[in-house]
Amino acid sequence: MSKFQNFLVVIVLVIFVGGIAIVFYFSDMNREANLSKAVEVKNVSITKVSIDHYFRMIVTDLLFLTDTLESELGSEDDVEHSLQKMAGYFRSMSLRKGIYDQIRLINEEGREVIRINYNNGKPEIAGKEKLQQKGNRYYFRDTFRLKRGDVYVSPLDLNIEGGKIEVPFKPVIRFGMPVFDADGKKHGIVVVNFLAFALLDQIKKLASNSLGDIMLLNAHGYWFIGPKPEDEWGFMFPDRKEISFANTYKDEWSIMRAQDSGQINTNSGLFTFKTAFPLLADWKTSTGSAEAFAPSKKQSPPEAYYWKIVSHVRPEALSAGSRELFARLATLYAALVLALGLSAWLVDRTFGKSIGMPAGGGLSPFVLISATATVIFISEVMVMLILPFFQPLSKMTEAFVNASFMTIMVVPTLYFLLYRPLNHHIVKRAIAENELREKSDIIDSMLTSSVDMAIAATDLDFRITYYNPMAEKIFGYAAKEVIGRTVMQMHTKENVEPERFEKAIEIVAQKGEYRYSVEKEKDGEKRYIDSRVSGIYDKENNMFGYMLMSRDVTDKRISEKQKEEFITELDRANTELKDFAYIVSHDLKAPLRAISSLAGWMSQDYSDKLDDEGREHLQLLVSRAKRMNNLIDGILKYSRIGRVKPQMEKIDSLAVVKNVVDSVDPPDNIVVKIVKPLPTIVYDQTHLAQVFQNLIGNAITHLGKPEGEIIVACDDEAEKWRFSVKDNGIGIDEKYFERIFKIFQSLKARDELETTGIGLSIVKKIVETNGGAVTIKSKVGAGSEFIFTIPKQIDVDAQ
Fold first, then answer.
1. Domain interval for residue 764
2. pLDDT, mean of residues 257-277
């Protein structure tokens, strides 16, 4: 072979390998670009879900606070006492959630009545001297004008205190609702200042795997989250009005404003965006105001309240991967060119020379060539170096003899380009057969795990491969009728819309599964079927088919319907109870107070004009009015249990018992002993105080001995606390154990003891509503012991 021929072969190989490198480069770059786009789409989508979640959670909290406040206004005559209780509820909410900078009750005149400051995790109730006038703030005006049940959501902006933007910046959203009493009179608004740091920080964390900057924009293109802190909140400052995404990226912003989501690839980089509409259709909002005491410019519909979530990958970040890949391929290509050039140089060096075969050459990596650059001898070791895994070696050594030296350079190249892919295909086929067996095992294990469920499996072409006996029972087809047929064929037979099938496959691809319910008529009876379509995956997480799992849920649906009807009836009963409580509180207590006051005046002014019998009757009237008032209070307390959500928090039970003992003020002949220690528990403090007050008060009232002792104790019983209130009184006959816990029941005549017969009923209802139980141990003449339990693990959110 001439020098020119050697050179030509080298050039062809260089071009050939270079072409492969170029194809690989552009293929890999396209794959990387698609992957980057998918990652950014995922980031902005997750961010939108997070925003929606926060808004709904906050409004749920606001509804709870407002409902509780309105309930207090309707059941308490002592407004000051109600406000103190609500301040405690507000503080508990602030402490438990940790996302509200302030929780406030503002009256109809715009004056703060209650304000809870978060105070860096140590919520405090603001003193009266610190309460401010907020009647001229836009969020008060915009909320106070709303109807009952309406929710107001302010724009996201920076908090203003004392007429100035608070430093360091404190981003807040104000959620508000008007407050009404039972007569429909508006008393003010409840406002929670959501500390938006929680949401903004979570957005940044969710996008931590983004190639570029994650940005959050308001509807006017201003940054809430920007590439630089100094770019953020431009709309709040007169001298920074021009600093916005809308001004920096005008062309991109014009496209984003017109679309809810999409991707734009411009000279400025890759922009992936999605629009978040966090308000529900019946929520209210307005434009707000960046000035402290300026009103909103206008009221806005919910759809006008939107944010743009934007991921911006700069051009240099997009090209970083291509530069790295190009550098790797260029290095490899240069090495191959150098190797080919070195081979040509070796041919040129050995051209015209001859050499004898060395002894033992078969055990050394030798190639002997003639003066015409043909192979005289090549050792098996050399063949192994050139063509690894090629068998048999003896035939290859013979094949190379008399070949040109360039052949032993070309053949390895062709081996790696042609033979190895072919060999890989053979191996891949064997692997595929093994995977098929594994997939069969996977399907079998999934199918045998559910005997009460109809299961059908298909391959990726939607051809049915499995159909279990329960599927035959539910769908009415024998396995032999459906196996081997496609889902589309069965849908045509069943008159199922093609759109439903296409929707199912699309959702499975996006979310991993698709759930739906259908109604079927069978033997003249309506049956309800719940189904789930999901992918079937091998051990390497590659999908190789689809699975339909269906269950007849007719009995469950009937039970749920009955449950819904029961809940509806229960809600109606609760509404009637609430109305009854209002009637009792307002319509009965008002004339009762008048009777009591009149009797008091008569006792003071006309006592000397009445005889003993008259004074006795007058005193009896005062006593009966007092008893009736206590009875009404007891009924109201009883009706509130279970209707008003308890405020679960960590409380010191010892401190609660001490306060109760002080308030009950036992007579000198009765000693109350507390067996320490008493635990710190999670409970509603008001409920716990009512339980101890009623049990200790009941023991004092019914002691029946000149010297009495009441012992309060607690035992640790694994999953619950076991509290007890024990006395050394006259005891109770066992036949009355159930009766004493019934409302309005007393074992002694009402005239003998001033009692309402409600106290123990309240104890039982409180304890059982909170997951505990009440029991009694007693013998006539040997005292009584009331025992109640409190679970250690109380689900606060479920209360």
1. 648-798
2. 90
